[in-house]
Specification:
The protein folds into 2 domains: 130 residues, Aspartate Aminotransferase, domain 1; 298 residues, 3-Layer(aba) Sandwich (Aspartate Aminotransferase, domain 2). It is 39% helix and 14% strand. The protein has a 7-stranded mixed β-sheet with strand order 4-12-11-10-7-5-6, with helices on both faces. It has a 4-stranded mixed β-sheet with strand order 1-2-3-15. Helix 4 packs antiparallel against helix 12, helix 9 packs parallel to helix 10 and helix 15 crosses helix 16. The radius of gyration is 23 Å and the shape is globular. It binds pyridoxal-5'-phosphate (PLP). The site of pyridoxal-5'-phosphate (PLP) has 15 residues, from helix 6. Pyridoxal-5'-phosphate binds next to helix 6.
Length: 477
């Protein structure tokens, strides 16, 4: 008792600064931070965050930062959102967790039903995990296992787009095209082939994004033609390749990918881990695929081809969601799939069933956070409100996009990105540090600066974000 009060006295008499310093040292010593060369933190101190509110994070010295990257793209409706807090608190008083093998509970059933209502038509079955990389693993395994159960055990290969990112576990890395990871972990991975990315920055001179996307679809077609008999699935990030540096592409590519995958009997996996949940302006990016053209393409595989053809937008064979699904509160991911795929596993033999599990599959707290997030979408008409916000940001950003050092300005829904012409080789680190000085959390990818703010950002906060970013770009170009 005495020791404890001495300690409290001692603590309260130290400056807040010193407290933060201690926390940094302790974190440096005990916590191995993600995606980080720890030695770099000798020069760039970690930032201790004490609390959050709306788009703002506050450090231990009560300095604020506008979270312009939604804390690695997960936050949708602000930090410490009262409605999500209330839902989790309510669930805490009822049931924190129960295993999902042999048991079920109201939150996971409700969430599955509501996702089925919202998702592209036909995705009636939800399989849960805890993070995005696991969702990728599940989709890959489920696809190959489907072909095995369907008498085509040779279909075990996958393809992804150039510069794809689908997570960092070994299976997910095999369909992730990041040179750094390939160098370090290539020997552990059964690396899969890539096809050209429709990223419009790669279009030829005078070539429209749409023409370029169609040219890339032709390359996909050639690959499918040659390898379809061994291919299980094609995995893509619809509309925006996030980790590639917010590479954006024309939605016609989604339509063509759906048609070609149908034609060649290859599954299409839509990894909407980053772009789902309203980020691209529609609830799911797949909804933005244009209607099929009047001259229908020949479809092989009987009924299978019909799924994507009935409406605007496409139905992938697998839809992976995570990141924003709980509003940025708790780890949760889900893979949604079609009835026909589910049925291929539905049998008396255990080995025909899908063999995959995680301890926290379908955690009730995470499901309640997700349900509360879906409630906010409906109550606040968030998709329509986001359209207004995006229009406002595009309007006020004119001086930024017209700045001489700003190139390839682009926007899809609530994602903005541009490259900065800067002499600094360590641009990303400098920009990150300078942004913090300017009360913004920006985390450039190479020389690409992007905004992916929480949807609750208001006009005043957007003004702040754009003006400060303009200042930062001026300093670093
Ligand atoms: C973040 C991300 C993942 C991986 O999700 P984690 O939860 O970080 O494992 C997979 N795919 C895409 C497109 C992502 O953006």
């Amino acid at each position: 008792m005495f020791l404890k009060s001495v300690k409290l006295f001692y603590m309260s008499n130290k400056s807040r600064q010193t407290d933060s310093r201690n926390l940094l040292d302790r974190s440096h010593a005990a916590v191995w931070h993600p995606c980080t060369q720890m030695k770099h933190h000798e020069n760039f101190p970690l930032l201790p965050i004490a609390r959050g509110s709306g788009v703002w994070l506050y450090d231990n010295d009560n300095k604020r930062y506008l979270d312009a990257v939604s804390s690695w793209w997960v936050n949708l409706f602000g930090h410490c959102n009262p409605r999500i807090n209330a839902a989790i608190s309510d669930q805490l008083g009822k049931l924190e967790h129960v295993m999902l093998a042999g048991f079920t509970h109201e939150p996971v059933v409700q969430l599955s039903e509501r996702l089925r209502e919202l998702a592209p038509e036909g995705l009636g079955h939800c399989f849960y995990a805890s993070d995005g990389a696991s969702a990728t693993e599940i989709a890959l395994k489920m696809s190959a296992h489907y072909w095995r159960n369907s008498g085509m055990p040779g279909k075990t290969q996958f393809i992804s787009l150039e510069n794809s990112y689908h997570g960092e576990t070994l299976g997910a890395l095999s369909v992730t095209d990041v040179a750094l990871f390939r160098d370090a972990y290539g020997a552990l991975i059964r690396q899969q082939a890539t096809v050209p990315s429709p990223d419009w920055r790669k279009a030829g001179a005078g070539e429209s994004p749409k023409a370029y996307a169609l040219r890339c679809a032709t390359a996909l077609e050639q690959h499918l033609q040659q390898f379809h008999s061994e291919l299980a699935a094609f995995i893509i990030e619809p509309l925006v390749q996030g980790a590639a540096g917010m590479a954006m592409y024309h939605p016609i590519y989604l339509r063509r990918a759906r048609q070609l995958c149908d034609e060649y009997g290859v599954h299409l996996i839509a990894d909407e881990i980053a772009v789902g949940m309203g980020r691209t302006g529609t609830m799911f990016a797949c909804e933005q695929a244009p209607a099929p053209s009047c001259t229908p393409l020949p479809l092989a595989g009987g009924g299978r081809g019909a799924v994507g053809e009935t409406m605007n937008g496409i139905t992938p064979d697998f839809l992976c969601l995570s990141k924003g699904i709980t509003g940025g509160y708790l780890p949760l991911s889900v893979v949604m799939t079609r009835d026909e795929i589910y049925q291929a596993f539905y049998a008396d033999e255990t080995v025909r069933g899908f063999l995959h599990s995680h301890s926290y599959t379908g955690n009730p707290l995470a499901c309640r956070a997700a349900l509360a997030t879906l409630d906010i979408f409906a109550q606040d008409n968030a998709l329509a409100t986001n359209r207004e916000k995006a229009a406002y940001l595009n309007e006020i950003a004119r001086p930024l996009r017209e700045h001489g050092a700003v190139h390839n300005w682009r926007n899809t829904g609530m994602v903005w990105a541009f490259e900065v012409g800067s002499p600094h080789r360590d641009f990303a680190q400098r920009c990150f540090a300078l942004a913090l000085e300017n009360e913004i959390l920006l985390r450039p990818i190479g020389k690409t600066v992007y905004f992916m703010p929480p949807y609750t950002i208001n006009n005043e906060e957007m003004d702040f974000l754009v003006n400060r970013t303009l200042h930062i770009v001026g300093q670093l170009s």
